[in-house]
Amino acid sequence: METKLVSPARDGYVLGHSPKEIVRLQKQNLFLEDFTWRCLRDAGVKPGMKVLEVGCGAGDVSLMLAELVGPEGQVVGVDLNPQVLETARARARAAGFDNLLFKQGDIHEIALDHDFGALVGRLILFHLKNPAESLRSLLNHLVPGGLVIFQDYNLYAATAYPSSQLFDQTLGRIIEAFHRGGADPRIGLKLGEIFREAGLPRPEMRCEASISAAEDWPGFEQLALVTRTLLPLFEKFGMATAAEVDVDTLADRLRVEIAGGGRVGHGPDVVSAWATKAS
Length: 279
Ligand SMILES: C[S@@+](CC[C@H](N)C(=O)[O-])C[C@H]1O[C@@H](n2cnc3c(N)ncnc32)[C@H](O)[C@@H]1O
Fold this sequence. Notes:
The protein has 279 residues and is of the alpha/beta class. Helix content is 41%, strand content 20%. Strand 4, helix 4 and strand 5 (142-154) form a beta-alpha-beta unit. The longest helix has 25 residues, at 19-43.
């Protein structure tokens, strides 16, 4: 069945730009930071590099990059959302980085230099209508031999074991809302194909996930926070009402059912891919 594309944000970004979404992005980083550090290091981000990060959000990856490239290097983060960039700038100031610059704009339109040594994006291809085409045009900002590094989710890999009806229902609603809002919840598995279509060599790839039997697993809160962000879409698409979702108690109900019920929570696969632009 064909579905209409709707979004809580006027610019078409399915997760919108609310202050709560800015906080959620920073909490989501708890899941991802180890994977991202490893990926950036193994891909070869080095002191002195000039790096472009697309869809930088609250700056979690930009801050890692600023540390890796050091004072001789430079990082430019780009995002659509001016509010999220205020948070990113404040964090960069608090961390004492002066090699980190944030620019507001659409990555398809914004004027940027063409001498970057690396192009990085985490959880951005997920949201783009034609990721391979976008990547191909972003490569114009890279020097020959420049590094291309992307990380994205395969949300379908998230699960609870033994299975939990509440977990499956919560994840199922999130995946459906993303689909109907125009995002691609399976994009992580497509990174190889996207790199190839963009004209890059076959990337190195890696897949990691968070897994826990503990009550303090950040997965419970993250599922509830994404649900809160997507709730207007659930209602718009007639998927579920706010009363049915009861988002205020969702994290605790998941915690009781998964950790309290002797189950294990398994987050989405986080797929990393990196390659080098031809010299
Ligand atoms: C899911 S967030 C990820 C943020 C960050 N990369 C991270 O991993 O924490 C995606 C970000 O991409 C931004 N974004 C989406 N489409 C964009 C576009 N066309 N141009 C610039 N930024 C965009 C959104 O505003 C949002 O901050």
